[in-house]
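Can't attach files on this board, so I'm pasting raw text. These are the components:
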Amino acid sequence: MKKVIMGNHALSYGAMLSRAQVIAAYPITPQTQVVELLSEMCADGTLNAKFIKVESEHSAMAACLGAALAGARTFTATSAQGLALMHELLHWASGGRMPVVMGNINRAMAPGWSIWADQNDSLSERDTGWIQFYCASNQEVLDTVIQAFKVSEKLMIPSMIILDAFALSHTYEVVEIPEQEKVDAFLPPFNPPFRLNPDDPRAFGGLTSPDHYMELRYKLQKDMEKAPAVVEETGREYEKMFGRYLGQVEEYRCEGAEIIFVTSGTAGYTARVAVDELREKGIKAGNLRIKLFRPFPFEKVRSILSRVPRVAVLDRNISYGHHGIFYQEVKSAMYGQTSQPKIFGFIAGLGGRDITRETFREIADYALHQDKVEEIVWIGVKK
Amino acid sequence: MNRKKEAKKIIFNSEKEMPMVAMSIGSMLYNRTGAWRNIKPVIDLSRCIKCGICWKFCPDTSIDIVDEWPQINYDYCKGCGICAEECPQKCIVMVEEEK
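---
Top answer:
Structure tokens for the assembled complex are below.
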């Protein structure tokens, strides 16, 4: 069935079709509609889940963790300040190997108070041990939720599904809503390898001496390293059943390119239009949209970028005192490779400023004509 | 017998033997947190009505029910005082530790 829905509701439908059993959430713009619709679904019986109202995002994640440990499939959603307040519990989720799936709507961090899109909120949680997916369309959001549950439950690592504020969260698009029976066939009920069980009482997350802590972290990293292959295999399985494929990255006209944009989120779709325009003018541009950011898709990124002389990384975020975060990541992925493109880093669109085709024209113009690589090029700052 | 001497520290020799989470790794067998206590709860059983509220509220599961009566496990009780606060009979009092 096709429906015209907003990005936020694509998350809700994804959680509904995945038969989430416990949802605990606290409202925050621009996320609120995600859990608003889910609470309605719980109230009218469309979704057989327990909806827990809490007093903060910290408690929302804490409630999700308790439920996950009891063996429930668990979902929540948040944004910016709310995600920051959850920070401690994000470590509990990954360290405790609880496969919670969470939507995060990319919203700029305050102050100045902002409700508009940028990526500093989710990227500040880069090192918490969560899988991160950056989405560019409402269909992708819905499909990613269902696949994220499968990936997370297989690896026992939580997943964050990330979409841009307003540009996606409040934008209506046609979305194919899969049939429940088919989703059930794709995603069987959650059956964790360990859980809270009164018949077999155990302590979880207890004091861990230096004799063992490092081994637990080693195991998390080893399982994280398996994630790209699991995402790939889950994506192919989904494609077989539903006809749509989601991989680690999306390549657009990268063959024979002289310059490739590296993008994420909705900017990745704007970039495709910009690529078409540049190609019409005779400039061989391409776009590599990174969908899976953690774990980083090293293999894919290396194989695509090592074929091209110039790379322009667009960051809707900044690591103060360093560079754009995707820029750092791409450079580090290319370090030591035999074929080294010139890699430029651009910062644009902070705090919800629009990223348009013009942005990419400016980026291409700069990156094609500069020989010296400057590490931060700001686009659109009123200097 | 001193149970502390009895307890053996669990040491895994390889990550392969370990669960993926810190689950039942036995650290509390030797880490007797009762030593942290400054004040200890003492129950006046003559006034106790065996309601089990102290057992239910204890955040460290340090109250056992033995033959229907509450018994504090001083090896682990940290002396938080929640049981004394919650006891409807007010038959639990917090007493200064003397060492």
